[in-house]
């Protein structure tokens, strides 16, 4: 293995139950891996095990630069950022240099080494402020800057953007991505948000039930689910089996690519395929209207633009037709032919 962090035959047990099983994983220096999974998938368990921070029974090898790592080696190598920022008393600058000070660096040198990171993460105007006066977004920015300023070989991020508003999260993601570019740091971020993975990571692993289901380049993984579980995780919550579409394989589609046919123009649109069902409910969500439809093969969820009026929607309990775009095949996620056939307007009978 090349420089970076990884594992072989990693297993984590607690209370007689296996929480995690990862045969092999490697994140190279200078690369970022997003571990994407639902709540309870084992994401934080994996992060703690890789950092030799787990309180559970762990077996297998944790590798640093291709060699089995000891706790002391890993402690010196990693920087960690948790969901909720932990700040010490003092100013923002004091908190940023605290990681370096903990490693025995003099205060003067620590300030010199931290200054570029304070500027890179846009903390200059806050440097002299009492850390206890910060918002949660500002506090998390300080935590990330402190971790980076210490020059870690490995950066572990445990859902660091949870609880931040959308603007704060977007700004921090952009600044962190820019700060990591060109750095010899192997970064692992666990998240349940695919947009965070897309913004920050070159590679993504999908973790479900303590096992990695898919792993590869982020843009490929996020758009090519391999089974119903990974499809739901990636937002492809509408499953379209052959019995519904008349095709040979199961297709999946995201709600934003699924809408009711509301007029004759929609119904005869050659760029769509449609299936029939019964309208169960509509829910106004402000920027969109959610429409739930029951079909012979299960429920579908549609998202309409928020300016659709309630009077434009069919009555609950009535038969409706649903049009679908940008579907993916589960049988061969790399093959666009099923999706192309879906978009071609080639009709099949539906129950």
From TrEMBL:
Which GO-annotated molecular functions does the record name?
Answer: ATP binding; ATP hydrolysis activity
Q: Where is this region: Disordered?
A: 329-351
Keyword Ribonucleoprotein found? no
A Pfam family this chain is assigned to = ABC_tran
Which species is this UniProt entry from? Nonomuraea jiangxiensis
Mind telling me what this protein is named? ABC-type Fe3+/spermidine/putrescine transport systems, ATPase components
What region holds the ABC transporter domain?
5-234
What keywords appear on the UniProt entry? Answer: ATP-binding, Nucleotide-binding, Transport
InterPro entries on file: AAA+_ATPase, ABC_SmlMolc_Importer, ABC_transporter-like_ATP-bd, P-loop_NTPase
């Amino acid at each position: 293995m090349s420089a970076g962090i990884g594992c072989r035959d990693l297993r984590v047990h607690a209370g007689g139950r296996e929480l995690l099983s990862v045969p092999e994983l490697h994140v190279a220096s200078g690369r970022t891996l997003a571990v994407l999974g639902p709540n309870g998938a084992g994401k934080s368990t994996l992060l703690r095990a890789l950092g030799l921070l787990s309180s559970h029974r762990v077996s297998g090898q944790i590798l640093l630069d291709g060699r089995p790592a000891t706790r002391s080696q890993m402690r010196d190598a990693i920087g960690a950022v948790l969901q909720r920022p932990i700040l010490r008393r003092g100013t923002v600058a004091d908190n940023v240099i605290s990681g370096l000070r903990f490693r025995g660096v003099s205060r003067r040198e620590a300030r010199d080494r931290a200054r570029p990171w304070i500027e890179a993460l846009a903390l200059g105007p806050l440097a002299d402020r009492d850390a206890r006066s910060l918002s949660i977004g500002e506090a998390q920015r300080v935590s990330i800057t402190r971790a980076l300023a210490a020059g870690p070989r490995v950066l572990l991020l445990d859902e660091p953007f949870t609880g931040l508003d959308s603007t704060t999260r977007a700004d921090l993601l952009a600044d962190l991505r820019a700060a990591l570019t060109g750095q010899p740091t192997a970064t692992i971020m666990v998240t349940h948000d695919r947009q965070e993975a897309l913004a920050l990571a070159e590679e993504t692993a999908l973790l479900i039930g303590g096992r990695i289901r898919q792993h590869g380049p982020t843009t490929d993984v996020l758009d090519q689910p391999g089974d119903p579980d990974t499809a739901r995780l990636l937002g492809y919550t509408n499953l379209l089996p052959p019995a519904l579409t008349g095709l040979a394989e199961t297709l999946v589609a995201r709600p934003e690519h699924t809408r009711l046919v509301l007029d004759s123009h929609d119904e005869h649109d050659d760029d769509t395929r449609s299936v029939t069902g019964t309208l169960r409910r509509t829910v106004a969500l402000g920027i969109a209207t959610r429409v739930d439809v029951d079909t012979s093969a299960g429920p579908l969820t549609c998202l309409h633009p928020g300016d659709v009026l309630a009077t434009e929607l069919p009555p609950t309990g009535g038969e409706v037709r649903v049009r679908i775009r940008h579907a993916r095949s589960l049988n061969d996620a790399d093959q666009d032919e099923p999706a192309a056939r879906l978009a071609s307007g080639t009709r099949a009978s539906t129950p």
